[in-house]
Amino acid sequence: MTADDDAIVRMKAFLSEAFAPWVQQLSIEPVAVTETGAVFKIPASDTLARTGGIVCGQALSAIADTIGVLALIGHNNDERIMTTVDMTTHFMRPVMTGDVEATVTLLSNGRRMATARIDIRQAGNPKICAGATCAYAYV
């Protein structure tokens, strides 16, 4: 098992143990750990859609915040307790019901704080649909 595989196992375990059941129902799947962050897949789900088959912004925000934490868990090689202290989300185009891909870039990861940039795309489309910047405090 590689270090990347270990990180994915840690992220999956943390997701199943530490997050509320409704967050687990988002079916977030860690796909890869990169040098600067991580990549995730969120499978299609009609339960995340609002009128017109558009994935609702609340779901996208929850996904962004959750995968930011998971990327830090994967990179830190530990399960330090953290809390979100700030989050800014921008919605640039609709995400239609279907598979979603998300990339986390860790901008900083210090002793007390971390900052992550999350880009969310429709699977197979290079255009960013939503982006978030999240700041986390280590407790």
UniProtKB/TrEMBL annotation:
User: What keywords are assigned to this protein?
Assistant: Hydrolase
Thioesterase domain boundaries: 53-128
Q: According to the lineage, what is the superkingdom?
A: Bacteria
The protein's matches in Pfam families, at most eight in alphabetical order, are given as:
4HBT (PF03061)
- Report the coiled-coil segments: none
- PANTHER family in the record: ACYL-COENZYME A THIOESTERASE 13, THIOESTERASE SUPERFAMILY MEMBER-RELATED
Entry similarity comment:
Belongs to the thioesterase PaaI family.
What name has this protein been given in UniProt?
A: PaaI family thioesterase
What organism is this sequence from? Hoeflea poritis
